[in-house]
Amino acid sequence: MLCGKKLKMTILPMFAILALLLAACGSSGGTSSSTSSSQPASADKQVLRIAVGATDFGSLDPALVQLAVDYDTLSTVFTGLVEFDNQIHLQDQLAASHSISSDGLTYTFTLKPNLKFSDGTPLTSQDVVYSINRALLPATKSQVAYYLNLVKDYDKIQAGKVSTLIGDSLLAPDPNTVKIIISKPAAYFLQALTYPTSFVVEKSLIEKYGTSWTDHLNQGGGDGPFKVTNYDHTKGLYLVPNPNYYGKQPKIQKLEFLISGDVDTTFKGYQSHQYDWTGVVGLPPAQIAGLAGNPEFHEYTNLRIRYVTMNYLVKPFDNIKVRQALALAIDKDLLAKTVFRNTVIATNHIVPQGMPGYSPDLIGPASVKSTAGDKAMAKQLLQQGLQEEGLSSFPTNITFSYYTDVKAIVDATQAILQMWQQVLGISMKSDATTYAKLITLEDATVNNPKGLQVWISGWLADYPDPQDWLTTFFDKGSGYNQMNYGQNQSSVAAQQQAVQKQLEQADVTQDQTTRLKLYNEAEQKIINDAGWISLYQNKIQLMKSTKLQGIVFNALSITPPDDWANIFISQ
Amino acid sequence: MVQFFVKRLIGLIFVIIGVTFITFILGYLAPGDPIRQQMGDHFDLQTWMQLRHAYGLDLPWYQQYYNFLTHLVKFNFGLSFKYQNRAVWDILKDGVPVSAELGFWGLMIELLLGIPVGIYSALKANTWLDTTSMGISLIIYALPPFVIAIIAQVIIVSLDKQTGGSWPASSWGTPWQYSWSDLQPKIVPILVFGAAGFAYFARITRTTMLEVLRQDYVRTARAKGLQERVVIYRHALRNAMIPLVTLIGLALGFLVAGSFFIEQIFNIPGIGRISLQSIYDHDFPVIQATVVLLAAGVVLGNLISDVLYSIVDPRIKSE
Asked: Touching check for B25 and chain A: CB below 8 Å?
């Protein structure tokens, strides 16, 4: 029949298209693995292509850098006085050695001999103090100058009251010596100094090109293991070994940081062999489960913790048993599995895994070790806590604030509220906002009983030192002590203040072992108080070609400058 | 004609003012603080105030808008919030040739595929050929462009895995350069662009051709014994093209704005991708600049369309 024939002729092409789609969709998430030797391939094959994500670098100026991917990229071109090795141990980098005065205020660095910029110009102590001073100048408009806030008279130069710190707290008594004077003893100063704000840049290039100097890095300006040959804002950054590098020469002969698109596009690009390493871009969550066992798939923790916390100035959150009850009612293992699909690690810690000061022996609130919580104990503690407060039930006017920028946070919030409802029978109102707005509200909660009540937030380490976690968030007078730990009317306020003194003591103790012990003890007390209800620590998932050898993953996601001598493409 | 152009260009100025004002006010009133967003977790009041002052964000809204307009006259769109110390035009100028190239070749595919398919369908109207071609066109037209793009990418990756090849699943070559390394990554995105839009031109062409083929003068031409080829291509098609010319002119205006989804999915560094990312980043200067570009493109596209229309249709020229 004519109708039937027409219909067949229309449907046939549709089936053809459908068959093609099904064939294409039948492909698995992984790539084919290949074995590789441990011998380097020939020099012409030493080309490493690293994906950097959807956008151009925010900035390659060390004084301005904020994004992790920018940090990783410019760390191949610039270096500083001190940096971390791949085990996150502090080491001298441009400095051959350093010493600290007995009062802990003066740091003296002796530079390595014969240092040069990538264009062959000598690099001296004057360049070091210039670079640090430049990062602090208001004209530089650095949003990350605070990494150097320990430098004496930091406030004055930021406020424009002084025009320079060179000759004040930044001294270059001779071409090979740098002295930095800080405002107060701080055993973590060198850790803060590892951030790129103190990396050395070439003054002549900046004076010649002004704010667009990073577009001319092919003319010099760097002092790292690589130098720039081309910076294309639409494609990425192209580098070759720096012949004037003071350390061992890299084996990689061409290094390319390529703008690769969003997470899905980057993954597909990797599968099409456009990249050898997906860097810190991440992987599509839906693909991760299928990549287990793939030799090109790697996973490691990074120094980011997400947490829930409560304002000590809002009743009943000044009662420690109530706080402990809320903490133990959350099954963090279930959250990690269902909401985050095992892309995170459930944790009770404040100081994350993978950095100095992490305490594997730390236990959760009320001596509960498990990250799955304890429902029975949670109920009991809530009852006791409410009784102590003279309350017959949990208040109904409590608001949980969360941000909607990340879907997983929205899902986690709903899951937590549900757990509290199911385990403790309590309900809270929820208030959705943006991340930027939440930060504003957090700041306004300091010393404010009318500020936020319960909220979810997170922290990414500025530098891998427990001070950046514990003192920053729980010390007296800290702008980040938004939960008002120690500054409240709870029955344990005096004990919390004692913990704060312990943190301050740890901040100035030079002996590392003693310091870390003080921090560990303080952390356990804060966890027991449920100062934070830490939820999870992030993991980074990536794909790396099996031919790319010598990369050592660490929680900072850094490749130390001298490690490039061990990285190569194998045969 | 000169008077016509001058009138339209004056109109363009008013359109730009209207568009920029609306965009500015929406951005000004939108929740969120772009400086605070850039600062992330580490908010410092002093730094925040300094940066707001540096970007002029501490001025009253009317002062900010006035500054924007006066800079616009000098083609200065200001500095990006996200890409520190980079001028907005510096960011956009790299994207314009890329989007223009993608849009131009994509439009060529749409026309080279769509018009013949439309003509063929009209000539074979109500036969199985017509039904099939229009059916396929409708299916492809109904598929959102980002679905077609993702399917194409999945096919590339699958073929690469099975053959051991390395056809790029994303990226773009040097704009308007056609060595193999520049051309190879462009082929699939251009075909996707063309596939997503050819059905539109096919259906319009079919409809207008059918209408024209029913006209008396076409019957007369056939009655005079002219070859069918002459009747179709010299008499019927020219008149059927008139509405198409309007659409082509409008499409040209949108070229500069880029195809948001195709650029995002294929990692093409065009205006579309820049625009999308600037929205995620609350990078208002870039958002404003892309809106101005788009508005200018649409107005110029309309102008081109009107001019082409008057060329193709003598009745309009005489009016």
From this structure: no
